[in-house]
Amino acid sequence: MNVIYLESLAKDLKKIKEKKLLKSLSQVFIALEETDDLFKISSVKKLSGHPDAYRIRIGDYRLGIYYSNNEITIARFVKRNDIYKLFP
């Protein structure tokens, strides 16, 4: 699947210091690139009110993604209490 990483994601990742969390995140990135179906990945949920917005749970953090036309755009990676303020 085609995966696009936004600049806002890079800014969010610079703030993360936990190595275990970064390792889990890299595994999710690999899974997103290799999958044919987004919903085969665990903890993917559609956000209500936004037709292309989804989130993936990784510990206390959420990965905000857009999915349309077999293309995934990864936008944000922030704590769970902030994701709904910053994404979408």
From TrEMBL:
User: Pfam families given for it?
Assistant: ParE_toxin
Q: Record's InterPro entries?
A: RelE/ParE_toxin, RelE/ParE_toxin_dom_sf
The UniProt entry, under Gene3D superfamilies, shows: RelE-like
Keyword vocabulary terms for this entry = Endonuclease, Hydrolase, Nuclease, Toxin-antitoxin system
* GO molecular function terms listed in the Swiss-Prot or TrEMBL record: endonuclease activity
Q: What is this protein called?
A: mRNA-degrading endonuclease RelE of RelBE toxin-antitoxin system
Origin species, per record, is Tenacibaculum lutimaris
